[in-house]
């Protein structure tokens, strides 16, 4: 194998590994939450509303954190207005709440926080 071929292969594998270890933002579903719980996998729930200015700021931060090294977890976005059952189940009283979990345990709960470093630190508590 030529040296440049080895280097190219190593680069591709590095990028693939980095891509697999990233924050994944997906809509909430009971199935996704249950799968994470059973696998004892880190997961975060973002209670979001379209009319919430704080939620829009948080969303921008989460989008920036997608490429943050070491944040290998799913962020499940709960529609605060349309998913009252989940809102009640997690005892959330307003949009803009982030709950970070692993298995059955809650690791962090933030309300109204928009600072990138605080949101990232909370997400890391599940890892």
Question: Could you describe the 3D structure shown?
Answer:
The structure is a single chain. By secondary structure, this protein is α/β, with parallel strands linked by helices. The protein has a single domain, classed as 3-Layer(aba) Sandwich (Glutaredoxin). Helix content is 43%, strand content 24%. It has 5 helices and 5 strands; from the N terminus they run αβαβαβαββα. It has a 5-stranded mixed β-sheet with strand order 1-3-2-4-5, sandwiched between helices. The longest helix has 18 residues. The radius of gyration is 17 Å and the shape is globular.
Largest sheet: 5 strands, mixed
Q: Average pLDDT across residues?
A: 87
Q: Classify the helix fraction into a percent range.
A: 40-55%
The side-by-side strand order for the widest beta sheet comes to: 1-3-2-4-5
């Amino acid at each position: 194998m030529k040296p440049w071929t080895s280097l190219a292969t190593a680069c591709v594998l590095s990028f693939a590994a980095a891509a697999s270890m990233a924050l994944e933002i997906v809509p909430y579903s009971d199935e996704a939450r249950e799968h994470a719980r059973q696998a004892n996998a880190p997961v975060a729930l973002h209670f979001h509303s379209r009319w919430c200015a704080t939620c829009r700021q948080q969303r921008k931060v989460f989008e920036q954190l997608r490429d943050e090294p070491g944040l290998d977890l799913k962020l499940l976005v709960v529609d605060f207005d349309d998913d009252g059952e989940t809102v009640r189940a997690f005892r959330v009283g307003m949009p803009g709440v982030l709950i970070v979990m692993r298995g059955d345990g809650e690791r962090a709960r933030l309300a109204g926080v928009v600072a990138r470093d605080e949101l990232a630190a909370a997400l890391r508590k599940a890892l």
